[in-house]
Every structure is written in C-alpha cells, then in structure tokens.
Amino acid sequence: MDWTLFLGLFLQSLICTVIGQDSSQMPPNMTSIFNDEYSFPRDSILTDASFNCKAENGRVIYEWKKDGYVVLNSQFIAVDKSMGILKFLKMQNEDYGTYQCFATNDYGTSLSKPFKMMEARLGSFPPFQTQEIKCEEFKHCKVECRHKPTCLPESQCKVEWKIGEGTKTNVEIDKRVGVDGNGNLHFLWTNMSDWTGQQYRCGVWHEQLKTLVVGSQTSLRIDSATADPKVDPMLVFKENGKALIGEKGVLRCMFSGYPVPDITWISPQEMNIDNADGKYEISDFGRVLTILRAELENEGKYTCKHSGKNETVFLNVTSAPFLNGSNQMQDLVLPEGQEATFRCEAESSPDELPPTRPTWKKNGVDLKIDGGKYLLGENSQVLSVKDVQKSDSGVYQCMSENSEGVLLKEAILKVTDPIKTTVETGIITIKTTITSTDIFTTDIAHTEIVNTDISSNIITTKVVPKTQNSKETGSNAAVAIIVAVLISIIVLVILVIVARRIQQRGSSMDKKELATGHDSENERKETSLKDQPV
C-alpha cells in the first residue's frame, strides 16, 4: 500500500471535517424562508408588515435590497442591519417590487430567495343599469357576475351572491343552485320561487382587507312549464386546475338537469375518489374536487361522471425550477491551485417549458465570465473556477426561473493551504523498555518483520513556518494538531504490535522446551539453588 498517498488523503479528510465544524470561519448560512409573494394595501397603517432575516455562523451583518438597490431607513420603512429586520409602517406605491436579504460576514455573503411585494386592493363595480334575464321553469339558467372589479391577490378574493337590498342576505347554495369558478350564479334547474321581486346582486369579498363590494344587479323573468318534464343532464361548467408540488389543486364540474344528477369523480389511475382516503376532498355538492397535496403522480385527466355522461378535466402539477442529481451545488474544500466545479442543472416539471439558463454570482455579486478565472459549460449549467486561491473562497450562487417561480441554490468554496508530504527512506528504529518480573526468551529465527512498508519508509509531515493572519490561525493550528495525533497513533500501533510479537515468541519457546522434557521454570529454580552457598 502507498502509505504516503493514504496519509495525504486521510489528512485532507480530517482537515475538511475540522473546517466544516468550525462555523466561526465559515460564510453565513441563510436559515430564513420567505413566501414567493406578499401583499399589503397602499397608504394604510400596517401592523404585520415585518420580515426577519436570519443566518448562522459568526457575527453577521444584514442588508435588504429592492429591485437590486439597497433599502434605507425612511419615514415609513425601518431597517435593522444587526438583527436583519425589515419593517413597513405604511406602504407607498414605490415600495412594491422584489425584495431580497443579504447576510454577510468576513468569509462571504449568503442570499435569501427573492420575493415579490404586491399591492392588496379591491376595486368597485361600475354603476350599470339592472339587467333582466329570461329563464324557463325546470331548465338551466345562468346569471353572470358582470363587470367584476379588480381584486388582488386572487387568492384573497371570493364571489358571493346577495338577494334584495343591502349585503346581509346571501343566495342559498345547494344541490340545485351553485356558483362556478368565474363567479357566475347557476340555477341547475329553475324554480318559479327563484324570483320573488328582489334583485340578485354579485358581491366580491376581499379576505385580507375584510371588504365587500356589490354590483351587477339582475332581475329574473321565469316562464312556467305546462308539466314537470324530465330534463337530461348537461355540462354547464368545467374547469381545469393547476397546482404547485405540495400545494392544493382544484377541479370543477357542474351539470344541470331535472333532477340534478349526482357526480362521481375518477382519478387518472381509474380509481373512484371519495373523501375517505385523505388525499382528496369533494365539496360543493360534488361539484368541486380538491387534491389536498399535489404530487407529480397526481397530474393527469380526471373524470367527472353521472349516469350516462362523462366529462374530463386536467390537473397540471408544476413547480419552480429544481436541481436533479446528487452532485448539484455541493460545498467544496480544495487546496490552492486546484480547479473548483459547481453544477446547477436546473429542470422544470414534465411537459413544462424549460427554465432559463442559470446566472452565477459570488457573494451575491454577478460573476464576470471572461474565459479567464471563470468558465461556463453545458449551456451555463456548469461553473469552473480555475487555479483557486484563498481569495476565491466564499459563497457561490446559481439562479434560474420559469413561469412558476425562482430557483436559488448556494455552495461554499473553502480554499486551504496546499498539503505537503515528504518521504525519507530508511529503517525505523523503535526503542522501548519492557518492565516485568518475568523473563522473556526468544530466538532471532522465530522473529518476523511486521508491516514492511512502514519498516522501510519514514513518513514525515513537516509544518512549514508561515506568518498567518488572525483568520487563518485557527484552521492551521487544527491541522498541526491532527498531524501530531496521527503520527503518535501510528507509532503507538507499531509499539503494540512489536510487544505482542515478542510476548508470543517467548510463550512459544516455553512450550517447545516442555515438549523436549525441559521445564525452564524448574531449571531456573534448580540453578538458583545450586548457586546458593552450602
């Protein structure tokens, strides 16, 4: 075995372990996780618009940026660089945009994932005249929510239908009456009692703002039927769904008919769906199917069926870009002069458009790829840093995006002093003293040389004196301690082996003497008696 190579590799692995555990000499590690979007109303006093950025490893200074520019303290914005807090007292129009936190210490800068700050707002209905809709008894009748106002973000908005003056009386939703995904009201079969002379009005509720606006006044004129007919079921609304991995996905099917048919849902694997399995939720009298936690295997065509008719809707499960593979954006510890390689092979979910080519940063600053120090390969998915020096240490970031979000991944490069080993040929001489009351005998013919590699080579690791600054002292001292401990262990192992061999050979000779009729112990006693004076 090449003990020089073994020693070098073992030392490097130990050094890497020590460096990895010495957090005081490592770049920050960002621990804060933010949502992709936040929304707050404009020109309102805010009590919950505070963001706390946190990172590990030593003393960290924080900086917030909006659209690439540093955020400063102002009349309505408070920034705490030592605590990483960004707080909005009131949102102005210029405060909306993309925000990102930068955490910096003496060894590098770590970034948070960027997030968008959006305005939460709700408009109003325009002042239109009341619209009259003609309906037929027992047949389907749709009342549109006309001229809906802007409501952002959409996740905070919900359509509610009111009847009569004011906003207190809701239209009762049941198996015969429902609201589709666009906010339109459906009478799946029309009853003469649906018109009482009171107008229907569409309302939009904003959950975050706790505000309701109403409009789109509609009256009905219902023509009565001469008999109770049987009206065949007919699809009046269906809606595909899209869900990010791990989030909810919603599908809708709505059938008219007299009587209204029951709806059964079938999965892409052609299995009947019910509420019992915990993966799905069926609501709104069977018209809405919710996939509670979407995974890639949930993507596909779902069937909503009733007696005699089937309809299909599609769930698209997607995600922001992700890295696929075990060697992506890995931390590296390399001696000076080596080449560092980072891989950022971003992918999108199946059947989605590919993400953008990765962009690369070091400590939050865009790298200048000029073919010198930095090289890009494989469509910018691989970054190579040539001839690394200690100045190349830091945090490297790759960023990519698609229609669903942004990927930000970081990897640390730690550059150390080169590992130097020297080999001196010769014989190892081991001096030891065995203290015992027993007498050991042996014969050179029964000895053997153990571990000829070590007996014919001396492996020495010399620590080259070097003036170090305060930032390097800790890691170099750790290296020196490791070298000393390792050499001591090797010498101790050799001593134990030699001592055990000597003991084994002595025991072997005693057995041979007994076999030939000699008892060395008795002979020693007899010799002792003979030597005593009479």
From TrEMBL:
Gene3D superfamilies: Immunoglobulins (2.60.40.10)
Gene Ontology MF term list: cell-cell adhesion mediator activity
Keyword Transmembrane among UniProt keywords: yes
InterPro entries: Ig-like_dom (IPR007110), Ig-like_dom_sf (IPR036179), Ig-like_fold (IPR013783), Ig_I-set (IPR013098), Ig_sub (IPR003599), Ig_sub2 (IPR003598)
Annotated region (Disordered), positions in chain: 508-534
Stretches that traverse the bilayer: 477-499
Residues in the signal sequence: 1-20
Keywords of this entry: Immunoglobulin domain, Membrane, Signal, Transmembrane, Transmembrane helix
GO cellular component assignments: axon; plasma membrane
PROSITE patterns: IG_LIKE
UniProt record, GO biological process: axon guidance; dendrite self-avoidance; homophilic cell adhesion via plasma membrane adhesion molecules
This protein's record includes keyword Transmembrane: yes
Sequence ranges assigned to domain Ig-like in this UniProt record: 28-112, 229-316, 321-414
Protein name, as recorded: Ig-like domain-containing protein
Naturally occurring in which organism (per UniProt): Magallana gigas
